[in-house]
Amino acid sequence: MIVGIDLGTTNSLIAYFGEDGAKIIPNRLGKHLTPSVVSVDGDGNVYVGETARERMSLYPDSVAQAFKRSMGTEREYILSGKHYRPEELSSLVLRALKEDAEAYLGEEVTEAVISVPAYFDDKRRKATKRAGELAGLKVERMISEPTAAAVAYGLYDKTRDTRFLVFDLGGGTFDVSVLELYHNILEVRAVAGDNYLGGEDFTEVMAKLFLQKAKLQMQGLTQKEQVRLYRQAEVAKCAISDGPQVKMHFLYREETLEQEITYREYEEACEELLAKIREPVKKSLADAGLKLSDIDEVLLIGGATRLSVVRDFLIRLFRKFPDTRMNPDETVALGAALQAAMKERREEVKEVILTDVCSFTLGTEVVVEYEEGKFEDGRFCPIIERNTVIPASHTERLYTARDNQEQVRVRILQGESRFARNNLFLGELEIQVPKGPKGREAVDVTYTYDINALLEVEVKVVSTGEIQKLIIKGDSNQMTEEEVKRRMEELAYLKIQPRDYEENRLVLARAERMYEEALGERRKKLDRYITAFEAALKKGDHDGIRESREALNEVLEEEDE
Ligand code: AMP
């Protein structure tokens, strides 16, 4: 079975295509969203999702979150003294999702279509693919998140040609994509975004607003207090869309502080963030050669589009109401599951032609004559430009730069900088040319880039017709089976917990956190219930465990502010 996975910055989801269409698979706690949070304790025990998030305030050094932001970079996270790469942490999330899907579907899941932000470059996509491999999943196809959303919305079923803008504001990434449907082809026309903007920034605004009103400084708070403040800010942020104001509480030095925050105040405080949102919207439209008024429909995806301040801003900007028929958290995973079904060539799924755009520029290094006889080398010459619809094939003719030059070297680069050295080196080709005065010989360099991130480079000497070719696979960095095995062995000290006991672990993590926060009678009460639950766990009697867990859970619900 091929499944669809939305590996999000804040939350991840897994979906499959069943008899009634695409459906989200609940996780071991029965929930659709699994927080993309991982914790590893000193003994190598792994916690994923909500349980890992609960551990954040007590064991901040053992928890990592938002690691999707660092995908494809050299950054490492240290959890309980051991180092992990972002793709390794992601693989632990994927592994949990895979297990949940297998338990739910009753069959093995071996392959997945994983969604990635349209803005992800090649390195980040490769890292995502490696995460899948480390989790034991084959990842042959990735789908960009806006395309997945458009597929889930069934936009490709429209009868008349339409232009859409997909606005995706997740926890930590922001993507805008302009899509066009014509003659039954759904085409991504342009993408733009910001990898460092998302719902968490809106939480931060709330947290800072609270501190400002309470006349406190962020620097004056301990790490645990900061975690607590953000948790309360998150609650207040989600509630502020429901009314004219919210009351936010914060336990500071054994005293519960309370502040009222109005919608107007919050909206004003968010102005800077809203201005940041406008930029990629403008850029994507400009790249697609369209105006705001050319957009027929706006789709909202990503949890943070539930914020009224964001919706109000978009209504003012586009002068129309966005389409919010679907749950913004689930759209992408459902689209990925539909794409998986298309890959399996399931009859129930209407054949749809998806095109994508190349989200970065591909080019080569050249020498530029900036004045008669004066040369500057190391300059970048774009061949396939960012936001070109793929598959695409472009040719650029390059001339010899020196007299009696005998060979031409074509360096293949990816990036947007004018200078070759700042762009990513993908490979190179060399070809012989007949000697002669500079500028007499020429080579035609053709780049062909397809939807599976396969770049074919052909260099042809115009005078002799000699040809050299190089294929750069998007997955050329793919780990060999042995490498994957070796990395898995290196991570073998990690103890993956059996999924059956997740509920118990979550209750304990939450209880432990609340015990630390509580004082006096509250603390004693919590202690009584925790002790009873632990005793039941030791005894191993199922009914007893369930009963005392429910009792403890009730107290936690009552006491959690
Ligand atoms: P995603 O990465 O798409 O899962 O989005 C997660 C982000 O959405 C987080 O920053 C959440 O705080 C935010 N979010 C989820 N629900 C709401 C809500 N009801 N109101 C405001 N923000 C929300």
Give an overview in words:
This protein has 561 residues and is of the alpha+beta class. 34% of the residues lie in helices and 31% in strands. Strands 1, 2, 3, 4, 10 and 11 form a six-stranded mixed sheet that branches. It has a five-stranded mixed sheet with strand order 17-12-13-14-18. β15 and β16 form a beta hairpin. α5 packs across α6 and α13 (520-539) runs antiparallel to α14. Bound molecules: adenosine monophosphate.
Which key terms come to mind for this protein?
561 residues, alpha+beta, 6-stranded mixed beta sheet, 5-stranded mixed beta sheet, 31% strand, binds adenosine monophosphate
- In the predicted model, the low-confidence regions spanning at least 5 consecutive residues are none
Shape: globular
Ligand roster: adenosine monophosphate
Secondary-structure content class: alpha+beta
